[in-house]
């Protein structure tokens, strides 16, 4: 249910942003809101309190994030509208998944993908660039990389793009070899019986 809500509202936000020519502005707002909610978890809890009316919460949003010309920390009309709708519908807890879905739709619209790379050791800039170029070429999309060092891999790397995983780690190769050897051993024991 939460995923359906995120998809519906994320799509609506994207359609609003694209029809009003504010895709980038909404992305900036989304990044800002993620920071606000991460740094102020009490604020998120406040917006979910059932004893406070939706109108009081919406007023709080307007006071805190009002028009841009009045304060530095503000949100666009579209983002404040999304917050108001989520508050009034009792779905403010879905805000982060909605923003993630919006980001996914923007990347899809721009033919971009995010690739998460796990390696056993840190990559040089040249290695990162070669991986990025190879992915761009094979996926026919612009690729943004995030790289994580994971010593458990022993060597090699694992690349995740969406639901697709390219696993060329030594750990996986060793696991695969172990399974193959065990299968051979089991087949040998079956023949002996």
TrEMBL record:
InterPro entries: ATP_synth_OSCP/delta_N_sf, ATPase_OSCP/d_CS, ATPase_OSCP/dsu. It is found in: Cell membrane; Membrane. The keyword Cell membrane applies. Gene3D superfamilies: N-terminal domain of the delta subunit of the F1F0-ATP synthase. Pfam families: OSCP. HAMAP family: ATP_synth_delta_bact. Belongs to the ATPase delta chain family. This is ATP synthase subunit delta. It comes from Bianquea renquensis. The lineage of its organism: Bacteria, Bacillati, Bacillota, Clostridia, Eubacteriales. The gene is atpH.
